[in-house]
Write a structure and sequence with these properties.
mainly alpha, elongated, 37 residues, single chain
């Protein structure tokens, strides 16, 4: 695995995590049901 592939994977992981977190981003902890599939 070269540096370019690692960098690409890092950006993909960051984008995925950011997209998943938007549903509860500004809500206080415990004010929403746990996320499921």
């Amino acid at each position: 695995m070269d540096t370019r592939e690692r960098f690409r994977g890092c950006l993909l992981g960051l984008a995925t995590g950011d997209a998943v977190g938007t549903t509860v981003e500004f809500q206080p902890r415990g004010s929403f049901e746990p996320l499921r599939d």
